Amino acid sequence: MEIWRVKDELVCTRRVPGLKSASLRVLQGLKGNIEVATDPVGVPVGKWVFTTLGSAARLAMPDPTVTTDLTICGIIEGWEE
Questions:
Q1: Rounded CA gap, 58 and 44, in Å?
Q2: Which residues is 9 bridged to in the sheet?
Q3: Looking at residue 19, what is its pLDDT?
Q4: Is residue 79 scored above 90 in pLDDT?
Q5: CA–CA distance from 22 to each of 3, 9, 73 (Å)?
Q6: Considering the entire predicted model, what is its pTM?
Q7: Which of 3, 4, 23, 46 could pair with 27 in a Cys bridge, judged by C-beta atoms 3.0 to 4.6 Å apart?
Q8: Keywords for this entry (predicted)?
Q9: Could you tell me the end-to-end alpha-carbon distance of the chain, in angstroms, rounded to an integer?
Q10: Residue 78: what pLDDT?
Q11: Distance between CA 78 and CA 14 in Å, rounded?
Q12: How confident is the model over 3-47, as pLDDT tens digits?
């Protein structure tokens, strides 16, 4: 698991069928790296979150057939950088 800050929502008008209609968020890590994650919890921009990756990321989605390798698992309350 890693900690990230949600920088923005990512809207894609075309996507692979395996991604289905999963919400996407742009995340920024503590070292400034940027990633895109599926968001089954509806995180607003600016919040800190923790994620899971790899095959566990698919299992964290409500539909485990969604093809993702990075999923937001929860919102962190009270985190300071």
A1: 21
A2: 25
A3: 94
A4: no
A5: 20, 12, 14
A6: 0.93
A7: 4
A8: Bacterial microcompartment
A9: 17
A10: 85
A11: 36
A12: 999 999 999 989 999 999 999 999 999 999 999 999 999 999 999
